[in-house]
Specification:
The chain is of the alpha/beta class. It folds into two domains: about 15-35 and about 80-125 and about 170-245, TPP-binding domain (Rossmann fold, 3-Layer(aba) Sandwich), CATH 3.40.50; about 45-80 and about 130-165, SIR2/SIRT2 'Small Domain' (2-Layer Sandwich), CATH 3.30.1600. The protein contains ten helices and eleven strands. The chain has helices at about 30, 45, 50-55, 55-60, 65-75, 85-95, 110-115, 175-180, 200-205, 235-240; strands spanning about 15, 20-25, 100-105, 120, 125-130, 140, 160-165, 185-190, 215-220, 230-235, 245. It has a six-stranded parallel β-sheet, with helices on both faces. It has a three-stranded antiparallel β-sheet with strand order 6-5-7, covered by helices on one side. Strands 1-11 form a two-stranded parallel ribbon. The radius of gyration is 19 Å and the shape is globular. The two termini are about 30 Å apart. The protein binds adenosine-5-diphosphoribose. Adenosine-5-diphosphoribose binds near residues 28, 123 and 190.
Length: about 250
Amino acid sequence: MSRVGPSGEFEPIAVKRESRVFVLTGAGISAESGVATFRDAGGLWYQHRVEDVATAEGFARDPRLVWRFYSERRKQIGEVKPNPAHLALAELEGFLGDGLFLVTQNVDPLHELAGSKRVLHMHGELLTSRCDTCPRRPFRDDRTYLDDPPVCDECGGTIRPDVIWFGEIPLGLREIADAIEACDLFLPVGSSGSVYPAAGFVAEARERSRPPRTVYVGPERPDNASMFDECRLGPAGRVLPGLFKFLR
Ligand code: APR
């Protein structure tokens, strides 16, 4: 059920200085910046096979194909900018400080470019690479590799994008679980709710003895829609800017 005010618009959600808000973003929050989502019509998984470009097996089979896929996405990052949804979350962080826990499934840097300071990229980051062989630390890398995949200058192994592929363990699950436990508002934005563990976070929140308010924002109901108190249907760039009422 969605609370709609007299103007027919959604009633803003009151946020106090001491509020603890958990925000999970998916590809949809970057859609209005021109970044393709995965499962919408024409999305990335309609153009590429997941097993070819987003698994360790696919990388072992054809690292050049994987690097072309990520290089295309790296190139695009230079041409896109944050949209009002990213900016609204940066403003929310400005009001709440560390009362906001922002975790994203996205590998693009648009939250940071909008001014968000603390962003947990649970699926890694597009502009970072790491060695597929040795334990050297991941390093910032905005280069594109359209021909030969890069080779590690420390061990000679193959350098891979520092992103989490299917079958690999997402980052920050402990901090995420703690933040789900502590929040009083749980707010996913622009995610189809079809990929775990992220799609299961709302169930974790609802299993708490005192569950938080759970609100989804996106243009269509996600696969896990039944788990939410409310689904505020609309593009994030339109819904987020007016979503919060800051009680100073
Ligand atoms: N505003 C908000 N949401 C939007 C918008 C918009 N303007 N446009 C589309 N969406 C929504 C769609 O309705 C859809 O629910 O964004 C969602 C995109 O879903 P997916 O493409 O499945 O993206 P996501 O949920 O982030 O995928 C999760 O799957 O392939 C893996 O690692 C990849 O992180 C990704 C994960």
